[in-house]
Structures are given as C-alpha cells and as structure tokens.
C-alpha cells in the first residue's frame, strides 16, 4: 500500500521533533519520556479493549510484573536479592558500568518474556469470563499482585526495592531513558500497524463484533485472544522494566501496580482518542498527558477535578473519541466516501 507524500512528511516531522527533544526541551525530558510511556499504555490497552472488545482493567499487572522481573535479574546477577533488599543494610551494593548495562539489557528481555508467559497462564483463566466479569477478573489480578508483592520481603515488601544506580551523570541518564521510551513506543506502534494489517487484525475485529459467529466461521478465538494478551504483556513488561530504572525505586502499590492511576489512565486515554483505531490511542494519550501535566503544574489541588471533567466531557460529547468525532465531521479527510445525494434526500 502506497503512502502519500503528506503522510510521509508528517511521520518525518514527528520523528525529527522527537529526536531533537533532548536539545529543544532539556528540562522536560522526564515528562516527555512519560508521554511516550502513556502512548504505549494506550496502544497496548486498545489491542484488547478496542480492537477485540475485551475491556481489561488489569493490564497494569504486566507493567508491574515486568518492573519486578527486571529488578530481580539486574540485582540477582551480582548479589543475593534478599540481602540486597534487607533494610538493615547487610551489603553495600555498587555496580560497574558493564554490570549496570548488562543487567539492564537482560532485565528488559526477561521482563518481556516473563510477562508473556504470565499472560498465557492468566489468559487461560480469565478468558472464561465475558463482559464486565472479564474486566473485574483482570482488575482483581492486578490488585492482588500489588498486595502480594507488598508482603514478599525477599524483594523488599512494602518498603520497596532500590534499583541499581546509573553509573554516569544525570543529564546522560535522562537522555538515555527518554530515547528508550521513545524507541519502545515507536516499535510498538509500527508492530501493531503491521499486525492489524494481517489476518490477526480481521480476526480480533470479528471477535469484537460477534465472538460466537467468529467461532462458527472457523476462527480459533481462544488462540487469537491469547496472542492479543501476550502482545500487550510483552510490550508492557518492557515498559515496566524501563520505567522502574527511570524512577530508580520500585514500590508495589504506587509505582509497580498503580491501578487507580496508570491502570485507569490507559483506559481513559484510549477512549478519549478513539478506541479500535491505530492513531486514536496515540492522540488520546497526547491530549490526556498534556492536560494532566498542565493541571498538575498550574491547578495543584484541583487536578483530579480537571481530569474528571475531561472524562465527563469525553463520555457525554465524544463517546466515539476525538478521532471518531473528527471522522464524522470531516469524513472525506479520512477516506470515507459519503453519498451526498442520498444524504440530502433523506433516503
């Protein structure tokens, strides 16, 4: 499929601006890195919630699981994890640059693979549920995971676990994690764009429209649901590993498994932009993150009221999301052909 010069120019402008962000906005690299993470959250939630019609409230589980898997690998390569997390300070850990980057690389890989395995295991359980029961079941998994990690003293329990310290200066550290978040979000977008263009995209859309009919037509629905869950878990696990190192400290409820913040944000961002589309989650993540950062800066104390108002406006006036509303208003710009003669005649 050919791509128009305007579309290519748009892609190029986005990539160029993103690559130059550390130079143009050096004081906002953390916020920009989190923006790319928000885009990844929305894209991965839409695989299940938008494209397949299975509204999961527990995707944040894979984010937190990836964070802890990475921490265990990074620390466990060189120290006893239980001694490292001992609050009495049994050992004084230090990591050489080679140890840090080796551990970080292997930790990210382990997080991706480990979360994929978790998705297959939990998928076999929760895919027996439908509708709101599926949403509540996945939410229960995420909430339980946070509480369980808070009682597991080997990984720090409720006191958390400090991540290995980055061996170089803070400016270089900020740039590194910004580019890691940027690359991961872009890879996720490109991969999903390719995946949706294949049989997989048609299959999960058929499941969304009518799962029983899709099954009757010969679509192995459980297989496609498992693959969709695994793809989301794979990228969320990597994002958790990166975010844990970017924060520098893992705590079970507020950092690793923040169900009432990040867990809800990924749903809201997708609905805001337009679920079931590729660019809708991206647009929703950008708008939501900008509003969130603005209200957190200039409306401290009222930030939740502002975000709540945004959600209400979205539900009342833009149920189809910003992208869906724009497609209805300007269908020609989205490649939608409208028969104006029939529209004008009312028939």
Structure overview:
- The structure is a single chain.
- This protein is mostly helical and 347 residues long.
- It has one domain: ABC transporter involved in vitamin B12 uptake, BtuC, CATH 1.10.3470.
- Helix content is 73%, strand content 1%.
- It has helices at 5-24, 29-49, 60-76, 81-84, 97-126, 131-151, 170-196, 199-209, 211-216, 221-247, 252-256, 259-273, 279-298, 303-317, 321-329, 340-345, and strands spanning 161-162, 249-250.
- A two-stranded antiparallel ribbon has the order 1-2.
- The chain is globular, with a radius of gyration of 21 Å.
- 40% of the residues are buried.
CATH class: Mainly Alpha
Number of helices: 16
Assign an overall shape: globular
Structural class: mainly alpha
CATH level 3 topology: ABC transporter involved in vitamin B12 uptake, BtuC
Low-confidence stretches: none
Question: How many structural domains can be distinguished in the coordinates?
Answer: 1
The residue-averaged pLDDT reads 89
The helicity comes to over 70%
Order of helices and strands: HHHHHHEHHHHEHHHHHH
What are the SSEs and their pairings?
Layout: H1 5-24, H2 29-49, H3 60-76, H4 81-84, H5 97-126, H6 131-151, E1 161-162, H7 170-196, H8 199-209, H9 211-216, H10 221-247, E2 249-250, H11 252-256, H12 259-273, H13 279-298, H14 303-317, H15 321-329, H16 340-345
Antiparallel strand pairs: 1-2
Helix pairs in contact: 2-7, 2-10, 2-12, 2-13, 3-5, 3-6, 3-10, 5-10, 7-10, 8-10, 12-13, 12-15, 13-14, 13-15
